[in-house]
Structure prediction request, 210 residues.
Amino acid sequence: MHKNFLFALSAAAVAVLLLTSCSDSPPAAPVEAKSQDVATPAQPVPAKTAFWEMYKSARLWAQDNEALSLQSKDVPGFKNAGGNAAQWVGIFGSPSLHQAITFTYTVASVPPDIKKGVSVGRSIPWSGPQRQAMPFDTGEFKTDSDAAFKSALADAKPWLDKHPDDTFSMSLGNASRFSGPVWSCQWGTPKDGYLAYVNATTSAIEHPKK
Prediction:
């Protein structure tokens, strides 16, 4: 039984070799696989996506950098919605350099002035924390902009029922009148609009200290 199996196996191998050597047709060229990757159009992003990219650049600028603020901005051709934005602007300060610097993160280039990715602005003198503009620790930044938007939206619903088409913007910062960093969620204008503060650590609506 074992010898018959070996004989059959050897015969099959010889047959394959003969067929290969006698074939006049060249081996078929490998078929190039078509890429299935399709470029995904740029979309507005939540704040943390932009913040951590800016933070990397801030670390290269100054190891002792402190986050001071983060703000959503509009970009032509994109619609900010749900706490996501096509552009975020962050300001960082350095106690050792006594300077502050602005970083901008944009999801796409819009010629001639707007460039995709992180752009670095010029540094300016910074005297350090003030009661109305205090740094915040990255560990306190737990509530992303989309989650903050949901909290603010529920709080603003009575006003929004009467003003459904008002514009929206939001910023992250810290001041002595708050328990920690807060999201300022603004519908309409400061003079004629609705402003909700959302705690950036707990996602709860926060009311300023008097």
